[in-house]
Structure formats: structure tokens, C-alpha cells
Design brief:
This protein has 252 residues and is of the alpha+beta class. The chain contains four helices and ten strands; from the N terminus they run H-H-H-H-E-E-E-E-E-E-E-E-E-E. Helix content is 22%, strand content 31%. It has a five-stranded antiparallel beta sheet with strand order 1-4-9-6-7, with no helix packed on it. Strands 2-3-10-5-8 form a five-stranded antiparallel beta sheet, with no helix packed on it. A hairpin with a 2-residue loop joins strand 6 and strand 7. Helix 2 packs antiparallel against helix 4. The longest helix has 28 residues. It is globular.
Length: 252
């Protein structure tokens, strides 16, 4: 009787550790890039942990799969740099980086970490401010209120960023405030020698519970003198306030 009970306990222990190994393996394979401390957020704390690991200073157990951003099989200072740039909104993703190749974000203030610099309210009545209530990354986001027209929204000046003949990837993340759901659209307005032109870059259904990415590609073609080149988020009904964060403007 004792021998049978012992065998049963041993079998249960073996089964437990087998299941644990499978779960741990699955969790590792599904690791979020950059989130080395596995707290659900990729931020400057992760960048610091990777930097310490790379330098061999005060080593702390981290998820090395999540920390190997450049895919070279080791934790190094370049991985820490990519995570820091992502946390600050300078790059929009850590999943497309391989061998150190990442398209630079040409937007100087994509995540409102230095106020509204480079941004403005598209429409005279609406108001664009910086908020910390809802953020996708970093400490701040942009918040647009007092919209009286569907085309009112936050706008980013592209006139000093884009070049004639260049093809660009444009995107922004948005989340509603005082409405459950609404379609939002990212539009580029260009005014040059041919007059005003509006180009729909992309659209998506935004909610007040999750961040939605809206974007697409844009071919910049300038005729004569460029007077205005901006991208802005629009299309929500008047009165709907929303947040924007982590804009991206990168060459393709």
C-alpha cells in the first residue's frame, strides 16, 4: 500500500513538472518584445534592465528572448537603445527590427513627450492639449476637445519632414474619450502649385477602451511651391474627444 502511494506521488510530481515546462515554454515563445521584466509594459525600466545586463552590472533575471531586439542571439547595448527609443515613441514597433535595421521615425515629437511641439489643432475651434490620463507609451499623449466639425482633429506638420518623390509610411494610434466607438481617418492635406489636395491614408474603428492604429502609405509629389503639408486625424462626430499617441513618419 505504501509502495503504491509512493509511486502515485512520484507520478504526480513528474506530471506537474512536465506541465510546468510546457507552460513556461509557451510563455517564453509568446514573449512581448522589449518587456524583459514581464510586467505587461515596455518602458524605460526595461531599457535600463537590458543595459545593465549588457554591461554585466547588477545582473537581474530578465526575459532574454524579449530583450534580444536586433535578433543577434545576445543581449547588448543596441537592444537597450531600441527599447528606449520605443518607450519614448521614436520608433513605433520592436517586431520589425532585424540585424539592426529599423526605419527612423522622422517625427520629432511623435508621442507628445515635449508638449505639442510640431502638432496643432486642425480647425480653429478645437483645442489640442497634452494629457497623461491615457497613454500608449511614454508619459503623455495628445488630447483633442471642442470639435465642432468632423474634420477637426490633431495635426502634425510634415512640411519640413517629407521630400518630393519620397514614399512614406504614416500612422498614429488613437483612443476615444467620451464615445464608445467611432470611425477615425488619417488624412494628408497638401497645398502646392496645383492647389489643395486631400489624401486618405487609412481609417479604423476606434473605441474608448483600446488603442487603434490608423495608417498607410503616402507618395509625396510636390508641384511648384509647397505651402502646406500636414497629416491629421478626423471623421469622428462633432463633440467626440479623443487621444492620439505614437505617430510615425518613416521612409519606405
Amino acid at each position: 500500500m505504501v509502495k503504491k502511494t509512493t509511486l502515485t506521488l512520484v507520478s504526480m510530481v513528474i506530471l506537474f513538472f512536465s506541465l510546468y515546462s510546457l507552460i513556461a515554454s509557451d510563455a517564453s515563445s509568446g514573449a512581448t518584445k522589449g518587456d524583459v521584466n514581464e510586467d505587461g509594459v515596455t518602458d524605460m525600466v526595461d531599457a535600463l534592465l537590458v543595459a545593465r545586463e549588457a554591461g554585466g552590472v547588477g545582473k537581474k533575471a530578465i526575459n532574454e528572448e524579449a530583450g534580444d531586439i536586433n535578433g543577434n542571439g545576445e543581449i547588448d547595448e543596441e537592444d537597450s537603445s531600441y527599447i528606449a527609443r520605443f518607450a519614448l515613441g521614436l520608433i513605433s514597433s520592436l517586431t520589425d527590427i532585424e540585424g539592426g535595421s529599423a526605419a527612423a521615425n522622422l517625427a520629432a515629437n511623435p508621442g507628445f513627450e515635449v508638449g505639442t511641439e510640431g502638432w496643432f489643432n486642425f480647425g480653429p475651434s478645437c483645442v489640442l492639449t497634452v494629457s497623461s490620463d491615457k497613454v500608449r507609451s511614454g508619459d503623455f499623449s495628445g488630447y483633442i476637445t471642442d470639435r465642432t466639425e468632423p474634420w477637426n482633429g490633431p495635426a502634425l506638420d510634415l512640411s519640413s519632414i517629407m521630400k518630393d518623390g519620397g514614399e512614406y509610411k504614416l500612422s498614429v494610434w488613437a483612443q476615444l474619450d467620451n464615445a464608445k466607438s467611432s470611425m477615425l481617418k488619417l488624412t494628408v492635406k497638401k497645398v502646392d502649385g496645383n492647389g489643395a489636395e486631400y489624401t486618405n491614408i487609412g481609417a479604423g474603428k476606434a473605441t474608448n477602451t483600446e488603442w487603434t492604429k490608423i495608417g498607410g502609405s503616402y507618395m509625396c509629389s510636390i508641384s511648384g511651391e509647397l505651402q502646406e503639408l500636414v497629416m491629421y486625424v478626423e471623421d469622428a462626430p462633432p463633440g467626440v474627444n479623443f487621444y492620439v499617441d505614437d505617430a510615425e513618419v518613416s521612409e519606405m
